[in-house]
Design brief:
Blueprint (H helix, E strand, L loop, with lengths): L5 E3 L1 H13 L5 H16 L10 H10 L10 E5 L3 E5 L5 H19 L1 E9 L5 H6 L6 E7 L20 E5 L7 E5 L6 H9 L9 E2 L5 E2 L11 E2 L10 H17 L20 E9 L6 H16 L15 H13 L1 E3 L1 H14 L7
Parallel strand pairs: 3-4
Antiparallel strand pairs: 1-12, 2-3, 4-11, 5-6, 5-11, 6-7, 8-9, 8-10
Helix pairs in contact: 1-2, 2-4
Length: about 350
């Protein structure tokens, strides 16, 4: 197969993903939401959470009945500023989209709101939902827990997920600040890439089954070892990333009533992943002048961008800046898909009766 990337249009890819989801009885509106979230990941350069997962996670779990394509979203508890939801083991993207929409609506009324979700599934990139608050001149926050892949500091068994944190803050003229980060050093997918290429991983990424730092990806992949928390080993203050990962688990798992720690995503017969999410929206003008906030955000970003550069460097970025530029370029010029991803989409599309014809 060719080693050259295949360029496909963003709109065409969205339409294809929606058709693929519909094949598994996902409601039309939900399929469109899921497609937009997955393609947003590829647009922003987060390929690990894009269409590469279309079959390996979503299609596979829908086919096996591990995700309910038409699950009801149930209200468990509600106050003017809070909402607790049960996703009914549905598709994570439409669940999260509706949860954040409700969160924003509540924040419009009372100034700030918080929403928890239990009994959900993987929802894609966390930043997508935090960014939903930006058009409303709000600060958005989105967290989710995930299956255990990260070892606690001084431990040797994966007990915490990569548990991402995303926050988006509006600006006036500058691009919005959008931080979307895992609380682990790297995602497990990074280690897998090195394994497939026969390369050693950098020391400080992961540990083997004995909890000892390793450069051999074969000692990590497949549950043999685990990824280290953000920061790495204790000597490099990895316990800070470990603490952040547990914090996400508290808000997404313990608080929502979802699974937490080593219990997340452990789907057995008759069991669900029971992933939990946490969302927040803060109306800026509920705490001060929204125009002044936006102007100060611009000033802060300018201060960072215009600060002295390290030797040999010509630019300083703020969170979300690279992703915005890449997304704008790819929306206009197309999304590059790796040949192996295209091959997978073609094979799976043929199997399920939704031919991948964009190439």
């Amino acid at each position: 197969m060719s080693t050259e990337h295949v360029i496909v249009s963003a709109d065409g890819l969205r339409a294809y993903v929606a058709r693929f989801m519909r094949r598994f009885d996902v409601h039309e509106q939900d399929a469109a939401i899921a497609a937009d979230v997955l393609v947003a990941a590829d647009l922003r350069g987060v390929e690990s959470h894009g269409v590469i997962r279309l079959h390996s996670y979503y299609g596979s779990r829908l086919k096996q009945g591990h995700i309910n394509p038409r699950a009801p979203l149930t209200v468990l508890h509600e106050t003017p500023a809070t909402l607790a939801l049960d996703g009914g083991n549905g598709l994570g993207q439409p669940i999260a989209h509706r949860a954040m929409t409700r969160c924003i609506e509540k924040a419009q009324e009372v100034g700030a709101a918080f929403v928890t979700v239990r009994n959900s599934n993987h929802f894609g990139i966390a930043g997508y939902y935090a960014m939903m608050a930006l058009p409303h001149r709000m600060i958005g926050l989105s967290l989710t827990n995930s299956q255990p892949l990260v070892v606690p500091t001084y431990g040797r068994r994966a007990m915490v997920g990569t548990n991402p944190i995303a926050i988006a803050a509006p600006t006036r003229h500058k691009r919005p600040f959008v931080l979307d980060m895992a609380t682990s050093v790297v995602p497990i997918g990074k280690v897998t890439v090195y394994q497939k290429q026969g390369l050693p991983i950098p020391l400080g990424w992961a540990v083997n089954a004995d909890g000892v730092p390793t450069t051999d990806p074969n000692e990590v992949v497949g549950g043999r070892g685990a990824v280290l928390p953000l920061g790495g080993t204790a000597e490099f203050r990895g316990y800070k990333g470990y603490g952040l990962g547990v914090m996400v688990d508290i808000l997404c798992g313990v608080l929502s009533g979802a699974a937490f720690g080593p219990h997340v995503g452990r789907s057995h017969e008759g069991q669900t992943a029971n992933i939990g999410h946490f969302f927040a929206a803060i109306r800026v003008d509920a705490l001060g002048d929204a125009d002044e906030f936006a102007a100060n955000m611009d000033a802060m970003i300018s201060d960072l961008q215009e600060s002295p550069k390290a030797t040999g460097e010509d630019r300083i970025y703020v969170a979300g800046e690279k992703e915005y530029e890449l997304a704008e370029y790819r929306e206009e010029h197309g999304i590059p898909l790796h040949p192996t991803t295209v091959e997978m989409l073609q094979q799976v599309g043929q199997q399920v009766g939704v031919p991948f014809d964009l190439a």
